[in-house]
């Protein structure tokens, strides 16, 4: 039996669809012509590309760990093993989305992030990414390196404030 009546209907009815805590890292993303489909709204895969850009900026600006050096010099990759997104309100060219990053879970080699797209205080989309720290030499999962874990734990504590 379908239980559609139990699905959240409005942006403010589900916990993950509320704005993230103010302490979370946020980055602005202008919506450009190239992001939109013929209906004039952002084409859904574009949001996943924006999510990864937000993760890169979160590392470099929010954690103070240079994302490019982590990959190119330390040879630590962060492949995505899970991605999902609820799309609540469409966005259009000329608008600016604010992407916020909440660190929901820190595992041995994986981390789960909630990434919300907000506009005028409203959550327009709410996604989840699971990333795994991986050696780029053999493409196997490796424990999250200590310095990265410390930075993430510090971030998690600050975000909750
Ligand atoms: C990442 C992998 C090498 C890990 O494989 P394994 O070493 O066998 O993984 P394990 O089963 O041991 O799991 C490792 C951890 O991931 C977790 N995991 C693994 N799969 C999942 C899924 N699907 N969901 C949630 N958690 C998961 C698992 O629970 C372990 O967690 P911890 O307890 O915290 O350690 C392998 O799963 C893989 O290669 N997957 C394909 C990844 C891929 O192709 N993704 C899409 C493209 S990558 C990409 O877009 C990208 C973006 C940005 C970048 O910087 C890099 C790449």
UniProtKB/TrEMBL annotation:
What GO annotations for molecular function exist for this entry? 4-hydroxybenzoyl-CoA thioesterase activity
What are the Basic and acidic residues biased-composition ranges? 1-16
**Mind listing the UniProt keywords for this protein, alphabetically?**
Hydrolase
Q: Name one Pfam family in it.
A: 4HBT_2
Q: Under which EC number(s) is this enzyme classified?
A: 3.1.2.23
Q: Looking at the record, which segments are called Disordered?
A: 1-22
**Which InterPro entries does the record associate with it?**
HotDog_dom_sf
Source taxon at top rank? Bacteria
**Is the keyword Hydrolase in the record?**
yes
Query: Which Gene3D superfamilies does UniProt cross-reference here?
Result: Hotdog Thioesterase
The yes or no answer to whether the keyword rRNA-binding is present is no
The protein's name = 4-hydroxybenzoyl-CoA thioesterase
Which species does the entry assign this protein to? Azospirillum picis
């Amino acid at each position: 039996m379908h239980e559609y009546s139990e699905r959240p209907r409005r942006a403010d009815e589900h916990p993950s669809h509320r704005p993230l805590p103010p302490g979370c890292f946020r980055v602005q993303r202008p919506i450009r012509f190239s992001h939109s489909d013929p209906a004039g709204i952002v084409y859904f895969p574009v949001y996943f590309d924006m999510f990864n850009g937000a993760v890169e900026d979160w590392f470099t600006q929010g954690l103070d760990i240079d994302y490019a050096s982590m990959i190119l010099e330390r040879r630590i990759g962060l492949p995505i093993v899970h991605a999902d997104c609820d799309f609540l309100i469409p966005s259009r060219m000329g608008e600016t989305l604010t992407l916020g990053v909440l660190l929901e879970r820190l595992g041995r080699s994986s981390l789960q992030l909630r990434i919300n797209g907000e506009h005028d205080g409203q959550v327009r989309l709410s996604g989840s990414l699971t990333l795994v720290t991986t050696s780029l030499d053999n493409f196997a999962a490796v424990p999250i390196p200590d310095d990265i874990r410390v930075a993430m734990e510090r971030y998690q504590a600050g975000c909750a404030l």
